[in-house]
Design brief:
The chain is α+β, with helices and mostly antiparallel strands. The protein is built from five helices and ten strands; from the N terminus they run E-H-E-E-H-E-E-E-H-E-E-E-H-H-E. The chain has two domains: about 90 residues, Pseudouridine synthase I, catalytic domain, N-terminal subdomain (Alpha-Beta Plaits); about 140 residues, Alpha-Beta Plaits (2-Layer Sandwich). Strands 1, 2, 3, 4, 5, 6, 7, 8, 9 and 10 form a ten-stranded mixed beta sheet that branches. Helix 3 packs antiparallel against helix 4.
Amino acid sequence: MEKIKCIISYDGTNFSGFQIQPKKRTVHGELEKALQTIHKGEHIRIHASGRTDTGVHAIAQTIHFDTPYDIPLENWKRALNTLLPDDLYVREVEGAPTSFHARYDVLEKEYRYYVWNEREKDVFKHNYAYQFPYDLDLDEIQRACRYLEGEHDFTTFSSAKATTKGSKIRTLYQVTCTKRGSELEFIFRGSGFLYNMVRIIVGAMLDVGQGRRHPEDMVQLLEQKDRQLLGETVPPQGLYLWNVRYK
């Protein structure tokens, strides 16, 4: 058996998320359908670095699969992209050691979230950024970001619907916000992320930017471990899985 590792990109707009679901169009489903065609009807299971929700995009998601076929790597890329839809693309294909696992070997993930901060709606950004029409204090947001860097229990910033059991402690190596023109770019790099964690953090940062909270409130929010202390989760379309790093 050969183990194949792929780096893929997708526009999440018309997918019901990554994870396979009956009668729904998913990234996982489209990939396995293409692999089944290549393997003449045999089901080939894929494994990903993690799932993304409906509407969330990926610049560099990582998957792996095992195959009985010995095909040149460039041919794998060509064959898969021929069969995949236009909103899903295999960027790179490489052989992986038999011990490699796309999910369990992750060292670091990077997510980015984009906010279009204008009063007037831009229909061309509707599926690719969160359109937020209110004034924001960037300096206060940047101060708040720094409180979230390092190792913390992120229970307050995790969806109450999360099914994952176990520790909610994660390490964030970078939490930053910059503004270019009308666009805010949040960057999050960390050892791992809880369900909806980035989108809940961005919502808290927008509260800070509007003066509804102080940057120092982040300390208390982390300590209290209560999702109900924060408002709604911001929409998915501003979120991008940007990169996954391995050993």
